[in-house]
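## retry 2 of 3
previous attempt timed out at serialization; input unchanged, resubmitting
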Amino acid sequence: MEVLPTLRRSLLVALALLLTACPRPSRIPAGGSTGEEVPTGDPFPKRPAVEARKDASADAALSEARRTAQSSPDKKKAAEAYLSVRKAYPATTAGQDALYQAGVLFFESRDYANARKSFNELLFENPLYGKADDAKRKLALSAMEVGAYRDAYQTLSSLAEHAEGAEREQLLRDAARAAEGAGLYGQSLTMAVEEAGKARTEAERDAAVARVEALVEGRADFVDIARVAEGLSSSNPAWPVLTFKLARIYYHLREWTRLEETLNRFLAEAPQSPFAPQARELLARATRRVEAKPKTVGVLLPMTGRYQPIGEAVLRGIQLGLEGSDIELVVKDTQGDVNKTGQAMEQLAFDDGAIAVLGPLLGDDSKRAALVAEELQVPLLTMTRQEGVTELGSYVFRNMLTNAAQADAIADYAINVKGYKRFALLYPNIPYGVELADSFWDQVVERGGAVRGAERYSHDQTTFTTEAKKLVGRYYLEDRGDYVEGVRDLQGENLDAFRRRKALEKVKSNVEPIVDFDAIFMPDDWRRVSLVAPALAVEDIVTNACDPRDLERIRKTTGKKELKTVTLFGANQWSSPKGRSGLPELIERGGKFVTCSVYVDGFFVDSQRPATRNFVRKYRESYKQETGKDPGLLEAIGYDSGRMLRQLVDKKEGAPRTRAQMRESLANLKDFDGATGRTSFNEKREAVKQLFLLSIDNKGVTEINVDQEREKAATGGSGS
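## retry succeeded, writing output
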């Protein structure tokens, strides 16, 4: 089974998912898996660096040092005696013997640093020394004791290549410990598996298998596990550990064919393994991934935590949409947590057999659910505003009001229905405002319009005089020729300071506003809009004269004949609750300055559309007493999303029986008549519908019949 190429291809997918059950890469890269070479071979030269000679005086000194060592209980002092011989006779055989003996005594007294120093010096000087193998082994063990695991591994593995029997096995065990200490988990795993295969007693076998298990759980990386498992005989006691781990890797990499092959072989070869029950469950779980229950629908919503209210609102809508049907609704609480969302999505697919899933709402939750949905090929109808979520896979759909859809609707109405061509933008410096302003600008340019000015303000700002002045060219007066000329005329007059100041103020007030735009787009909250609109009026930007007679009255009152009306456009956050008067609070606060404005929303509770009226009636009957409120966008979106799936599941002919069929049915859904509009899905699986264009007058908010106005515009009955 060629597992290595598959694992390399799938590695990036596994890392993107961040699935906790998969092992992490080695702390120090192992040989071959990352390109870093592992030390191999003998680290010592093949020829002596010093030609040692026999010397009688040196031999006598060595004999004296040996007697001193035998009579001294302090091994370190004894070692010093040998080192004195080495120092006096460095290029003699006695000097080398003394260096070896000093190293042995340091080793036995656990002075591993000096032992390592002595053996290194000896072996570099004379790698052919008679007791070189013993010196190397003690050198390697000393290196391990001081944390030089790579040096230890290199020396021990080199010695093991030439050893036999019990000595070789002990060297391999020591080398495995050194490799593990060095983070060379691939090498350590290889040796642990070999040790398990050669174990002679049950205790040795169990110890080796335990080491293998410890290495594959969070130490050895994917490729190392596959490399060691490839071609390994099932008679090796470590085979079940490696094979089951490999199966778990395949599971997290979504390599379903290889997963089933590996698990089937595992259960055939090791049916009594302690891992067998888990292997059977994993195999059953993998099989269930393609088994969908046509009448089971999953829901992912935050039902506890800070986002509980919005989760409950959507769920009320879904339940109302499925009321009276035999569809089983399986609700999973995401708690607004990305990891819980991913786990819940898997449970709905594997354990509950959901044919499709509704939700989530939050951006990050939806991205995680979308990734899992695509991997498991489960249709997901998400209700998030997160831009680009449907691009994560062909099984991901979205039914929610987006910033892009709002900008498109306003631009289409303003240009193609009202006939406006020139626009200004006034928006808050927050993601909502910036994204909507950018989208609207793009839509205007795409339709042949132009943006004459754009001003951004702080999200917590309460006064807007500066922004209003900038829009009409009254802020940077030095750039206005009429202002500069007026100031120049004053310079020739002999005026005192008071009169000069008054005259200068008059010059400023006489600077006419440059209103070179037909409309202003302001994507902000209704509270801020009620503050901005009066500030615009101060700068002679007339926003409340949709009737020509009103504009004429304003011209007569102000004496300014050049005044023109400008329409304020907004987005869904203009929707406000009703105040004490029964009117929306936007109108109560903004007064006459917000009349004649138009904004867009994804739902309008007072709409006369039959499907919307039917939903509002049913909701009030079921929930108005419980909640004390009318439904909003969240309830309406939940209702429509639930009814979409219900319509597909309840089809008398051609109802989807598999998830693939459900995906195709959703993709081909056209003109679904819902509370939020007549909906179809485009090629990007985004819901396309006619949004609600809402007009403000002093009596409240009314829905604009866009089709009717478009027809009037086409026949010349309407214009700017």
